[in-house]
Every structure is written in structure tokens, then in C-alpha cells.
Amino acid sequence: MDLISKDSLGREWQISTIQLDFIMPQRFDLKYIDSDGKTKTPVMIHRALVGSPERFLGILIEHYAGAFPLWLAPVQVAIIPISEKHVGYTKEIQKIFNENSIRSELKDENETLGKKIRASEMQKIPYLLIVGDKEIEAKSVSVRERGKGDLGAMANDKFIDKIKEEIINKK
Fold this sequence. Notes:
- By secondary structure, the protein is an alpha+beta fold.
- It has two domains: about 1-65, no CATH class; about 75-170, Anticodon-binding domain (Rossmann fold, 3-Layer(aba) Sandwich).
- It is built from six helices and ten strands.
- A hairpin with a 5-residue loop joins strand 3 (about 30-35) and strand 4.
- The longest helix has 14 residues, at about 155-170.
- The model has no long low-confidence stretch (mean pLDDT about 90).
């Protein structure tokens, strides 16, 4: 009995299996005495409910083509300051995310804004938050969602509520 799953390209992969094995007991010369006192070779049952963990993870990555849903993504939000002077505020936002169990990454390396955005998009991070002077004044973030683009400015607490709901409901 096998469980077959399809990846993002429509290919079929075997995930779990339960099999009867007649060969291995013979190779190991396994024997038992039955109720009639006769020596017999047993039949083995192999089970791999998830297959190897590596195979399962490989199939999972293939299925999502690396673009994990928000609830599963290792980094759910990338926080990107426009310049060095915005880093303090982005650290405050990251602290709030940590307190709310939202996995975030601060992109404060010395690169251009475009390079930081591009690198985050290449990592397939579900949400990118761009932070500059306007966002600091309004206590907000400028939100970009993977696959949907710019969603505009959003109050910090509103964004946290939105993302927590998506994580809980596995949207």
C-alpha cells in the first residue's frame, strides 16, 4: 500500500509505504517454529509512514516550489529599512513580531533598497515591510505581499492582526 502525492510540476512521488517482504527473512536465515512444530520462514512487514524525512522535505519543497505558505515559511516577514536612520524603528518592529511569535528577519545590511528587496523576493519571503520616514511618523509599515505586490501602508497593529489571523487559519 503506497501513498502517492503530486508536486508543483504534477509529478507523482511515493510518500509512505507498507510492504510484505519475503526476501529479507531468507537472506537473514530467519526461522520460527509453528504450532505444529515445523520450522518456517517468517514474512516481514516494512512500513515507512513518511518515507525518509529527506524525501518528505524534498517533496514538500517541490510542492510549494520553495514559496512556502505564510504559516510554514521559515522567515514570514522581512523588515527592510530604507536607510540606516530607519534601523532603530525596524528593530522595535522586529521585537514586537518576536513577542507575537512572528518569524522575521531584519535586512539592515549596507546595500541599496532595491538589492534588499530583490534578495528578499529571491528568498520567497511572504511579506516584505519597507520602512522610511513616513512609516515612522505614522507608526506603520509599507507592505508588499509575495505574488500580489504593494499593498500600501498599514498600521503596525493592523498588520500584526492580519498576519496572525493568516497564520492561525493557515491561509
